[in-house]
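User: Structure please.
Assistant: Input sequence and predicted structure:
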Amino acid sequence: NLELAGCYHQEPMSYPALLTWCEEQAELFGPYIADTGEYLEQAVSEGKKVVLEAQLGAMRDIDYGIFPYTSSSSTISVYGPIGAGIPGKSLDHVIGVLKAYSTCVGAGPFVAEHAMSDDWEEALRKAGGEYGAATGRPRRIGPFDAVASRYGLKCQNADKIALTKMDVLSSMKEIPVITGYKRDGVIVTDFDPMDELDSYTSVVEMLPGWKCDISGCRTYEELPENAKAYIRILEQLLNHEIQFISVGARRDQFLTKGAWL
């Protein structure tokens, strides 16, 4: 009740009302409650594939992120088995998920921000629907950042990439990509989360856009040549293969490049 009334300004609950609510939830979710560690251990021993999905990226990891603008926990892939209850298991395949451009929620250094004009940022924000789902707050936005992305992929030990929201770039005549950071005339290409990141500006390379709708593409071969070139250049900058490309928000709006593992 201290939390309900003090934090959320709700009416306090009586003990009978709370117990009734808990019993209703137990009836609904009871069949799904299990010792997840034991459940997953059994699945692994039977040779089944176990998929772990994460939400926060490396920049919010308490050890490897941009402290103090981090989560209070570890968000990198090697922690996945620990959080899932199978700490003795190791991962054999990690897919790093990257947007085709950069976004940031909350405070902290974000070098990609203001790499382009305010009008460019706002147009991309609207095209990508980059607003908080609950608050409606505009997300901070910028071009794809190869410097920060390389660091994130290293922290996650990713071997393949899923590139999302590539369709959002379809209206652009030219597409910016951040290839380095610059300070006092010196260009760096390695990301250091402990550095004074706010003192850097972006080194931007402009790539030709494809200026057509790609949301209907379902194979890599159907993509326009400039879209393929954009993917190839990102692969070169990241030294990783992009295996999955999303071209829309629906579950079926994606395509694959190369063989599935």
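The CA atoms of residues 171 and 211 lie 5 Å apart.
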